[in-house]
């Protein structure tokens, strides 16, 4: 999320026609096209965040600026060149790093929260706990995971929560 993504499309020379067909999970389809004989580009229903990375006659790569969850979906490049026809399909999955918070509840138990991550984060504790994480899904496809540390012994001073996610690994410590 938030980064720029570039999807390449073969070939890079002798292009006659190139078409990017984009089918997001959310929203309508869009297409970007280029015809070499007319040196003409065309776009249908594509947001301004999607465009050619360079000039399509030199390199037909697609750039998605500030990638968001709405960009998830299938991206297919169809290129016609003197060497033949070429297709390349991408299935874009957007990762959203969770926000980590660690706090103490009213009873002095550490609570670790990995908020609004995609996919859901995994929470563990450095010291063993019999905690069962609770997950809450959100309308935008993100998930918040909440874990309450339950100690086997009562003489714990500093507890560390570890959040694992494909986009980031984080840890925080607290004394309740």
TrEMBL record:
<dbReference type="InterPro" id="IPR013106">
    <property type="entry name" value="Ig_V-set"/>
</dbReference>
<dbReference type="InterPro" id="IPR013783">
    <property type="entry name" value="Ig-like_fold"/>
</dbReference>
<dbReference type="InterPro" id="IPR036179">
    <property type="entry name" value="Ig-like_dom_sf"/>
</dbReference>
<dbReference type="Pfam" id="PF07686">
    <property type="entry name" value="V-set"/>
</dbReference>
<protein>
    <submittedName>
        <fullName>MOR1A protein</fullName>
    </submittedName>
</protein>
<keyword id="KW-0472">Membrane</keyword>
<dbReference type="InterPro" id="IPR007110">
    <property type="entry name" value="Ig-like_dom"/>
</dbReference>
<keyword id="KW-1133">Transmembrane helix</keyword>
<keyword id="KW-0675">Receptor</keyword>
<dbReference type="GO" id="GO:0038023">
    <property type="term" value="F:signaling receptor activity"/>
</dbReference>
<comment type="similarity">
    <text>Belongs to the CD200R family.</text>
</comment>
<dbReference type="GO" id="GO:0009897">
    <property type="term" value="C:external side of plasma membrane"/>
</dbReference>
<keyword id="KW-0325">Glycoprotein</keyword>
<feature type="domain" description="Ig-like">
    <location>
        <begin position="60"/>
        <end position="175"/>
    </location>
</feature>
<dbReference type="InterPro" id="IPR013162">
    <property type="entry name" value="CD80_C2-set"/>
</dbReference>
<keyword id="KW-0812">Transmembrane</keyword>
<dbReference type="Pfam" id="PF08205">
    <property type="entry name" value="C2-set_2"/>
</dbReference>
<keyword id="KW-1015">Disulfide bond</keyword>
<dbReference type="GO" id="GO:0150077">
    <property type="term" value="P:regulation of neuroinflammatory response"/>
</dbReference>
<dbReference type="InterPro" id="IPR040012">
    <property type="entry name" value="CD200R"/>
</dbReference>
């Amino acid at each position: 999320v938030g980064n720029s993504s570039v999807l390449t499309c073969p070939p890079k020379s002798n292009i006659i026609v190139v078409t990017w067909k984009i089918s997001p999970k959310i929203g309508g389809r869009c297409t970007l096209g280029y015809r070499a004989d007319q040196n003409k580009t065309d776009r249908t229903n594509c947001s301004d965040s999607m465009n050619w990375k360079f000039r399509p006659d030199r390199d037909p790569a697609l750039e998605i600026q500030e990638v968001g969850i709405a960009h998830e979906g299938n991206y297919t490049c169809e290129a016609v060149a003197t060497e033949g026809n070429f297709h390349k399909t991408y299935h874009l999955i957007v990762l959203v790093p969770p926000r980590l918070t660690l706090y103490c509840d009213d009873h002095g138990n550490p609570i670790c929260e990995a908020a609004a991550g995609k996919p859901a984060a995994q929470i563990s504790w450095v010291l063993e706990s019999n905690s069962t994480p609770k997950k809450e899904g959100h309308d935008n496809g993100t998930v918040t995971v909440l874990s309450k540390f339950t100690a086997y012994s009562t003489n714990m001073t500093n507890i560390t929560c570890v959040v694992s996610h494909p986009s980031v690994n984080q840890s925080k410590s607290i004394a309740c």
